[in-house]
Amino acid sequence: MSFKVAIRNFKTLSYVGSYKKMRDRPLRFYCATILGAGYVAYNEFKKSKAEMKEIIQLKNYMAEPITPLSQLQKNQDDMKTQMELLIMRIQAEFCRALEKEEDEAWEDEKTADDYDFDNDIFLPSPEAKFKVDRWTRKEGGGGITCVLQDGRVFEKAGVNISVVSGKLPPPAVQQMKSRGKNFENKELPFFAAGVSAVIHPRNPMVPTIHFNYRYFEVKDKNEVHWWFGGGTDLTPYYLNEEDARHFHLTLKHACDSHDPTYYERFKKWCDDYFTITHRGERRGVGGIFFDDIDSPDQQSAFEFVTSCAEAVIPSYIPLVKRHKDDGYGYRERQWQLLRRGRYVEFNLIYDRGTKFGLHTPEARYESILMSLPLNAKWEYMHEPEPNSPEEKLMKVLKEPRDWLNIEKTKSTAS
């Protein structure tokens, strides 16, 4: 956008007057023109940053936006447009960060035979890139599904965006009412836009990450109701306390820049939400989770969601770099597969996003179930050995920990 502004201003100044007049102007006139255009462009850029406005960056996205470009350009201040541009950017940035880790893993030009892996389990691909699948739905909108499979670093990685609209069917309306939404109509016009990602790494020492950030609008009796939701959470297979603290601290910084109470509130919400009730354990070591955020105002809520989404890469990629080449064996792999079975149980039984997607007309099941791992395992009545690394993880999953010692700090201060 800044480049376009500069060109537009330069053209405007260049065509004032006749060619002869322009030709006879001194050199300093042209220098002033260029500086003036640059100054205007810089001010436009600062204004966009200050207002946290998303700008259209077609060449950087994984595919063309779902909404027609002319409509996005016409309604750039509309929150529906802003959210679509945000999720398009976040998707592209995260996909490229993951692909970079795959590229670096093969820089030494080794082949699959040079690694101590069981080829019966997988065949790593030195050309692991995201498959980009842009899809549309008849009722309105569509999405972009990006999936990477069988890489050396990532066994399966999915990063989706969806921008959909239409009418909510009664089951979806009922699900919202169960969360306290007092809608009167049985079928409601709606708009939803969100980005969702689940990354299942190859190495058991690298944790799985999930994040989702979304915006919702519902029209009920000529009144538009809007809200944001989302969160980022970490699911390790082996507990590394330094990793957990780094992850939580990064999310806390994102929260604190908007409200110092957010992290503590949304950390507890995350621990409570990602509970596998029938197992009596959490899915992972938590993070943040929130829903139905409609305060203090729309722009402030959008800026908060933007900060959280932008915190994903610095919270996770350092952990990938740190552990992707760690050694592991058959035992660690089998434990990883067992824990992925638990991941599947939560997503299919409890996850609200999965259930909402399945209730949505013309649901795209391949994209909804993208979160499921490539491989998982269930073993009858499995119990980790006493005092083992596996048991250490289970203790934390059954009793969530205050990773940043916030409660201790509070008690000390009081």
TrEMBL record:
Q: Which organism is it from?
A: Euphydryas editha
One GO CC annotation, please? cytoplasm
Q: Which InterPro entries match?
A: Coprogen_oxidase_aer, Coprogen_oxidase_aer_sf, Coprogen_oxidase_CS
- Oligomeric and partner information: Homodimer.
Look up the record and name the pathway of this protein: Porphyrin-containing compound metabolism; protoporphyrin-IX biosynthesis; protoporphyrinogen-IX from coproporphyrinogen-III (O2 route): step 1/1
**GO BP term (any one):** protoporphyrinogen IX biosynthetic process
Which molecular function GO terms apply here? Answer: coproporphyrinogen oxidase activity
Q: Which UniProt keywords apply?
A: Heme biosynthesis, Oxidoreductase, Porphyrin biosynthesis
Q: Which family does it belong to?
A: Belongs to the aerobic coproporphyrinogen-III oxidase family.
Tell me which EC number(s) this protein carries: 1.3.3.3
Its recorded name reads coproporphyrinogen oxidase
At the highest ranks, the source species' classification is:
Eukaryota, Metazoa, Ecdysozoa, Arthropoda, Hexapoda
Which Pfam family, any one of them, does this sequence belong to?
Coprogen_oxidas
